[in-house]
Amino acid sequence: MTPAVLSLRGLTLAYDDRPVLDAVDLDVEEGELALVSGPTGVGKSTLLGVVTGLVPRFSGGVLTGSVLLDGVDVTQAPPRERAHVVGYVGQDPAAAFVTDTVEEELAYGMEQLGLPPATMRRRVEETLDLLGVAHLRDRDLTTLSGGEQQRVAIGSVLTMHPRLLVLDEPTSALDPTAAEDVLATLTRLVHDLGVSVLLAEHRLERVVPFADRMVLLTGAGQVEVGAPADLLRTSPVVPPIVELGRAAGWSPLPLTVREARRAARGLDLPEPPTDPALRDDPALRASGIGVAHGSTVALREVDATLHAGRVTALMGRNGAGKSTLLWTLQGGRRRRTGRVEVAGADPAALDAAGRRERVALLPQTAADLLYLETVAEECTAGGPGTRALLDRLVSGIDDETHPRDLSEGQRLALALALVLAPAPPVVLLDEPTRGLDYAAKTALATILRDLAVEGRAVLVATHDVEFVAAVADEVLVLADGEVVSAGPTRRVVAESPAFAPQVMKVLGPPWLRVDEVVTGVVA
Amino acid sequence: MPRDLHPVAWWLWAIGLAAAASLTTNPLVLLTIVAVVAVVVAARRTHHAWARSFRFYLWLAAVVVVLRVLWRVLLGGGYPGDVVLDLPQVPLPDAVRGVTLLGPVTSQTLLAGLYDGLRLATLVICVGAANSLANPKRLLRSLPPALYELGTVLVVAVTVLPQLTQSIQRVRAAQSLRAGDTGRVRRLRRFLVPVLEDTFDRSLALAAGMDTRGYGRSGAATPRERRTTGALVLGGLCGTLVGVYALLDQTAPRLLAGPMLALGVAVAVAGLVNAGRRVQRTRYRADRWRPAEVAVVATGLAVAVLGWWVSEHQATVAYPGLDAVPQVSLAALVAGVLGVLAAVVSPPPRTPGAPR
């Protein structure tokens, strides 16, 4: 019998006697896609790191047990000596690019292995075609979109012909279409080349249909390994489709939209939900906004009105101008044309403090806002009321904690409390759901709804269609710097299949959320 | 056939022109060299981002000239002659005797500053030309295998620098979104802490990325062998540098010039050969050295040799007096113009996306 591509035997990893992984056993066979899942902070990245060798080398910690790759014990080998067997792509592929252009990046790993030039040349061409990036070969890596960067990063490890690909949240930063592209590429590699894949991901709804096996980290260092359909029956983190299946009592549990649609034929649906009429109360009016960097147009003739008491979602592919729009509305980014008005003033004409009183903006990297050593100091610097605000957003954060030691969700809440401190009527958030698990996302959704109920206008840029379905009253879709679609969530996501949440894909419009169906069925 | 010339060829060509420029203060010759460099850059620069940096070097050169002239005016005379602007001399204490501040400005003072500044500016422009004709990163990639790791470190440093500016911009923008310390020192901390954290995170991510892709895999060479090789190559390079310096600086001991240069080159080559035998790494689509490269280097070399000949045999042409219109000899003119041949003998650069 051939040994499994990857075997972990009695693997334990502890930081200061606190085990993150406790006696983990795991096998990944050839041509298998294994999905690592679980709530944030249970050690998904640590598990991947142990396989690549980055843990404990780059992170510290004490490792016992053994890691076998193709039957060879590599527990003590540094990452570079495993490079020919394991290909690793981290959370931010752009941060790990070494060279300038796509072609050089694909060749970099092979140069390290010392492959003959003719072989390198052949493999680069093959990989360019395999990943569909041949037209990008001369492009500067920094000019690529998120999806392209991710595919190039996968390609750059594939050229070394690894037996196992290890991917840490490969789709978390991508728009729905780019994520599907990347996942389709991975499935192709698994099916056609027999590459094994070990992949960690928060957004199960994207990945579960492709997984052969699921590794569920349950906290306290334990793992459960099994078929996705079995594990998801009891898993604490599940995609909406499984939630629907559980509620409806379907067996076997459907994992793909197609399976769920079949199962849903027999479902006795209640009256379709209707949204209460929205009250118009403009808090921010923007019209004809145009922004350009040099001769590149980022936004063209964008009109947007944010109403008090409403949550609006801003969607669109990577690079469509979402961040630019948020910064322009806040006043920090200079616009060429158009008007913005918040509470009787143009934020661009005010100083930083004046802007803060009118518009709160939570930037993409919330950590950029934090610079002090404890939560208490941050709250004091943020002004009176910050601490009370933080307690309302997320209760029970210790005063003495260092902001970097907070969980993703807590850090986000702290940053949000800081920008909300001057009580502005408009709140803008730039991709706040990145790296959040389902529980943290639900908490964030509640926070945003509460802000709206208080009478603020909320605009949240996100790629997460399930989050939009859960939180947004309205959706604004940007493409190529222009608004291509705007209106109530139910109508807009029904019009664009790429933005439709799973429940709508299964049951058809107007269904958005599992709770709508469930309360209906129960009632 | 359009293709990118070997980066080393462009650098050697530019160094040749710079050497010729450093051996004269004749403004006519210097301006010819600048014109030649501009023509070659316009004709042969590539389409990549760094190729646009030439304009920046032109500005830098202009600033150099202006500063040089201002400096002469500020530190005053030493050049008797026709007074153009009669500034009062600032009295200085005896402790700094010999230094004059301001004082009458003569046309000779201005000219001396101008010639001198022009020479320095030409050197700057030559470096700028090399930079925009050949990607400095490709140049680093052409380092011999033994220096491979050093090269990668340099490439990474060059890459991370622009990211640092992005990071600073991002953090500045983000910090304006929240209230916080406004004191001078504490405000600095507001920017520094997130930027440094971000930089550390990035560096660590990059290091992890390089490690997982096999960077630094131990080849067949033992650590001792690698150390010997490294010492030989670096020692050789230092020797070569000293030799080149002595060759260009007429006041340096002659023993340092020829013999030191030869010795340095020999040691470096020995080190490289030694390294090349053991290194396991290979290079993807390495730049090849072809006749066009030789021709370009030869042009640069010819300019340097002519420039040296003029400075040795026609001192009045190479270093014209400050009270007459500078004269140009045939040799000096050829030295200035010859560099333009590089644009003729080199192939046009490749358009990105086209096969190479």
Number of domains of chain B: 3
Mean pLDDT of chain A: 89
Biggest interface, CB < 8 A: A-B, 74 and 53 residues
Number of strands of chain B: 4
Q: Write down the Rg of chain B.
A: 25 Å
Distance between the termini of chain A: 55 Å
Architecture (CATH level 2) name of the largest domain in chain A: 3-Layer(aba) Sandwich
Radius of gyration of chain A: 24 Å
Please explain how this structure is put together.
The complex is a heterodimer of chains A (523) and B (356). Chain A is of the alpha/beta class. Chain A contains 21 helices and 19 strands. In chain A, β16, α17 and β17 form a beta-alpha-beta unit. The radius of gyration of chain A is 24 Å and the shape is globular. The mean pLDDT of chain A is 89. Chain B is mainly α. Chain B folds into three domains: 206 residues, no CATH class; 75 residues, no CATH class; 66 residues. Chain B contains 13 helices and four strands. In chain B, α2 runs parallel beside α12 and α3 packs antiparallel against α4. Classes of the chains: A alpha/beta (523), B mainly alpha (356). At the A-B interface, α3, β6, α4, α5 and α13 of A face α6 and α7 of B.
Q: Strands, helices and their partners?
A:
The complex is a heterodimer of chains A (523) and B (356).
Chain A: E1 6-15, E2 18-28, E3 33-37, H1 44-52, H2 54-57, E4 62-69, E5 72-73, H3 79-82, E6 86-89, H4 102-113, H5 117-130, H6 146-158, E7 164-168, H7 176-193, E8 196-200, H8 204-207, E9 213-219, E10 222-226, H9 228-231, H10 240-248, H11 257-264, E11 282-293, E12 296-307, E13 311-315, H12 322-330, E14 337-342, H13 352-358, E15 359-362, H14 375-382, H15 386-393, H16 408-420, E16 426-430, H17 438-453, E17 457-461, H18 465-471, E18 474-479, E19 482-488, H19 489-495, H20 502-507, H21 514-522
Parallel strand pairs in A: 3-8, 3-9, 6-7, 7-8, 13-17, 13-18, 15-16, 16-17
Antiparallel strand pairs in A: 1-2, 1-4, 4-5, 9-10, 11-12, 11-14, 18-19
Chain B: H1 7-22, H2 27-44, H3 54-74, E1 83-85, E2 89-90, E3 101-102, E4 105-106, H4 107-133, H5 136-141, H6 148-175, H7 184-212, H8 223-248, H9 254-278, H10 291-313, H11 315-318, H12 330-337, H13 341-345
